[in-house]
Design a protein that fits this description.
Structural class: alpha/beta
Strand order of the largest sheet: 6-5-4-9-7-10-8
Helix content: 25-40%
Shape: elongated
């Protein structure tokens, strides 16, 4: 039986997709989010997410309706609604030996978090833990910036206090990235189980992380500016850990 094409932007299903794109509160309440693009949808499905609705340009929605739903300009004519996963610490599975974890405290910009997840996917990081977040894991800008990393990188969301207890219980060394009272990042051994913790660009990490740390590390600033974008800093530190772990000692 041929599927009916939706032609009205006032259709209830279309309005629901638009609302999911725009409202984090609705995403949390319903446990649903929107994925755009054939590659992203296929990757989302391959990573175990359940797709509950799918819309294809000129197959079940008109161009006008598709344009209303789409958050991005070029998305290959495909949009889907999927179920969120459990991002609790209890659901996080780590490598049994020397896991590498990236911890972000109070990240504000979805694009920054997405970029960190993209680098985490590329560098083989075991998990990303987001503490006291100011954005949700399925923000459209985050999904776009992560290029699918949000689906494949094991990710947990919790408070900083919960995360510190989680790391301490498992004997995972805590390295805080900060300019004060710190050593150059390449001078610290990242081969054992390690969590690299980063704060916001504006205020850095809170005292609870500084006090919980096993060591403080910094990226040397050789120019006039005294900070890097958090996603760039995270990528530098991730790949230093990769370098150390791949280097023959």
């Amino acid at each position: 039986m041929e599927e009916t094409i939706i032609t009205s932007v006032q259709n209830a299903r279309i309005k629901h997709v638009v609302a999911l794109q725009q409202k984090s509160s609705l995403r949390r309440e319903e446990g649903l989010f929107v994925v755009e693009g054939q590659r992203e949808i296929e990757h989302c499905r391959a990573c175990g997410y359940e797709i509950v609705e799918e819309y294809v340009l000129n197959k079940n929605v008109t161009p006008q309706v598709y344009e209303k739903m789409a958050y991005r300009g070029s998305t290959e004519g495909m949009i889907a609604v999927a179920k969120c996963k459990d991002h609790s610490l209890a659901a996080l599975t780590l490598s049994p030996s020397h896991p590498l974890i990236i911890v972000l405290e109070s990240v504000e910009k979805p694009g920054n978090l997405g970029a960190v997840l993209r680098s985490a996917e590329a560098s083989g990081v075991d998990a990303v833990i987001v503490c006291d977040p100011l954005t949700d894991m399925y923000n459209p800008n985050l999904i776009r910036a992560s290029i699918g990393g949000v689906f494949s990188v094991p990710t947990a969301v919790c408070t900083s206090q919960e995360c510190i207890a989680f790391l301490k219980e498992r004997g995972i060394k805590i390295l805080t990235a900060q300019l004060q009272d710190s050593y150059e990042y390449y001078d610290y051994d990242m081969r054992p189980a390690t969590a690299i913790v980063m704060g916001t660009e504006s205020t850095g990490l809170t005292d609870q992380w500084r006090q919980a740390a096993d060591a403080h590390i910094r990226i040397p600033m050789l120019g006039r500016l005294d900070s890097l974008n958090v996603s760039v800093s995270a990528a530098i530190l991730m790949y230093e850990a990769v370098r150390q772990r791949q280097c023959k000692m």
